Amino acid sequence: MEHNALMQWRKAERARLIAARLALAPETLEAWRHSIDTVLERAFPGLAGKTLALCWPIKNEYDARHLASRLRGRGARTVLPVVVAPRTPLVFREWHPGVKLAEGALGIPYPADTEPLVPAVVLLPMNGWDAQGYRLGYGGGFFDRTLAAMASKPVVIGVSYEMARIETIHPQTWDIPVDYLVTERGLYRRDPEGLAFLGVPEPGGAGALASPVCYADERHFGGEPI
Questions:
Q1: Domains and CATH numbers, the chain
Q2: Cα(177)–Cα(75) distance, integer angstroms
C-alpha cells in the first residue's frame, strides 16, 4: 500500500476501533479488566520484582493501574512513558500514587520529576492488533521508535480486546511486533508464524500453561523468568 494511502487507512481504522471501544458499557470494561489482570498475574508471576512500564488509560483502554498496585505490593516498580520531543524516543519515569503528575499530549498524565528508569517489561495498549502481533497505535510512532533505540529491549506484552483484532495493519519496516498479547480471551505468544493462542493459565501454575501449550515465562532476565 502506498504511504499516503496507508496513513489514511490507518487513521480511519484507528477512529473506527476507538469509537467501538468508547461504546462499551462500564460493566463490560470492568469484567474484561478482571480477565486481563488474571491472565497477566498467572502467566507472568515474575512481574513482581521487575520494573514495569504501563500506560495511563484513555478512551476505555485496559486500565493497568489496579494490577500495578498489587504488583508494587510484591516489590515491583512501575513507570509511565514521558514524551520528550516529537520524533524522539520516550523516557520512563517512576510512578505510584502520590507522585506529582503533569498533563501531556492527548491530556495523558505523566510523572513530572521522578527519576527515569529502564523497564524490563512494557504493558502496551493496542487500538488494533493483527495475527502477526503488530499494533495499531495513535500514529505518533513513539513506542516503535523507543523500542528500536533501547540497548536492551524489554519484554513487550500487548494488552487489548478481542474486538480490536484486524486482518493486518499492513506493517512497515519501522513497526515492531509485541512478544505476547493478552486480551479478555487469554494469552497469545508471538512465534515465527505469528500469534499463537495459549489459553488461560491455571491458578498456581507458576507461569506454566497446561499442555500442549508452552510456558509463558520462557523469556528470562538475569536468569529469572518473567
A1: 3-225 (3.40.50.10420)
A2: 28
Contact 54, 124 (CB under 8 A): no
Neighbours of 24 (CB within 10 A): 13
| Euclidean distance between CA atoms 174 and 78, whole angstroms | 27
- Residue-wise pLDDT for 45-97, tens only, equals 999 989 999 999 999 999 999 999 999 999 999 999 998 888 888 999 999 99
pTM of the model: 0.90
Cell of 1: 500500500
- Phi then psi for 116, rounded to 5 degrees? -75, 145
Q: DSSP letter at 165?
A: B
Query: What are phi and psi for residue 106, nearest 5 degrees?
Result: 60, 15
The alpha helices in 130-226, defined as continuous H runs, are 142-149
- Contact, 131 vs 167, CB < 8 A? yes
